[in-house]
Design brief:
The protein is an alpha/beta fold. Helices cover 29% and strands 28% of the residues. The chain folds into two domains: 137 residues, Rossmann fold (3-Layer(aba) Sandwich), CATH 3.40.50.1360; 69 residues, Alpha-Beta Plaits. A hairpin with a 4-residue loop joins strand 4 and strand 5.
C-alpha cells in the first residue's frame, strides 16, 4: 500500500471515530499518527459546539490538543473515561487484542485505557494480523537503573530484545523517564502467557500487549470502513 493511500485510510477511520464522541463525554486522546488525525476531526466538532473534555496519553498529545483548543481534564478531576480513541501497531480481530507502543507512549496509553468504559481503535487494514507479533516487536518499558539486568531477563523469556534508540544513537526516553526495549518474540500463540511473564519481570514498568482493553475497532481499507466489536 502506498503511503498516500494509507494516510487517506487513516484519515477516514479517524473521522469515523470522531463521530462516536457524544456531548458531555470524557474522551481519552490517544497518541500516534492515526490518533493525531482523530484530534483534528474532534477539534472540528468542538468548534461546531460539541462540549467534551479530553485526557491526553502523552505530552505530545497534550500539546497538540491545547493547540487545537480541545479542553483537557486530569485524573484528579475524573475517575473514569467514557471513550478512548487510540491507534495500534497490530490488531487481532475477535478478541481485539493489540500491540501498542511503537510511538513510545504505551504506559500512559494503558493507564488511560484501564479506566475507560470503551476503547475504540482506529487503524488501516495493514495493522490486522492473525497472531500478535507477526509484524512488530512488543515494546517493553523498563527503568533505566539496572537496565542491562532487565534486558537479560527479557532475553531469558525468549525475546530478541534491543534498546530503542534515538536518531543520534542514544536510548529513547519516554515521558515517564524510562527506556524501551523492543522485544521480538515472533508470532505469539499464547500472548496472555507472555503478558503475564512480563508483568512479573522485575525492572519492567509496562509492556505493549494490550489484552482486553479495546471494545471496538474502526478499520479503513480499500473497500471502505469496517467496524468490529470485541467478541463476547
Amino acid at each position: 500500500m502506498i503511503p498516500a493511500e494509507q494516510d487517506r485510510l487513516k484519515k477516514a477511520a479517524a473521522e469515523a471515530a470522531a463521530r462516536l464522541v457524544e456531548a458531555g463525554m470524557v474522551v481519552g486522546l490517544g497518541s500516534g499518527t492515526t490518533a493525531t488525525l482523530f484530534l483534528s476531526a474532534l477539534a472540528e466538532r468542538i468548534a461546531d459546539g460539541l462540549q467534551i473534555v479530553g485526557m491526553a496519553t502523552s505530552v505530545e498529545t497534550e500539546q497538540r490538543a491545547r493547540a487545537l483548543k480541545i479542553p483537557l481534564t486530569t485524573f484528579a478531576e475524573r475517575s473514569q473515561i467514557d471513550l478512548t480513541v487510540d491507534g495500534a501497531d497490530e490488531i487481532l480481530l475477535g478478541s481485539l487484542a493489540l500491540i501498542k507502543g511503537h510511538g513510545g507512549a504505551l504506559l500512559r496509553e494503558k493507564i488511560v485505557a484501564s479506566i475507560s468504559k470503551r476503547m475504540a481503535v482506529v487503524a488501516d487494514e495493514t495493522k490486522i494480523v492473525d497472531r500478535l507479533g507477526s509484524l512488530v516487536a512488543v515494546p517493553v518499558e523498563i527503568v533505566p537503573f539496572g537496565w542491562e539486568a532487565t534486558a537479560r531477563k527479557l532475553r531469558d523469556l525468549g525475546a530478541d530484545a534491543s534498546m530503542r534508540l534515538t536518531a543520534d544513537g542514544k536510548p529513547y526516553v519516554t515521558d515517564g523517564g524510562h527506556y524501551i526495549m523492543n522485544c521480538a518474540f515472533g508470532p505469539l500463540d499464547e500472548a496472555e502467557d507472555i503478558a503475564r511473564r512480563l508483568d512479573h519481570t522485575v525492572g519492567v514498568v509496562e509492556h505493549g500487549l494490550f489484552l482486553g482493553f479495546a471494545t471496538e475497532a474502526i478499520v479503513a481499507g480499500r473497500e471502505g470502513l469496517r467496524k468490529f466489536h470485541k467478541a463476547a
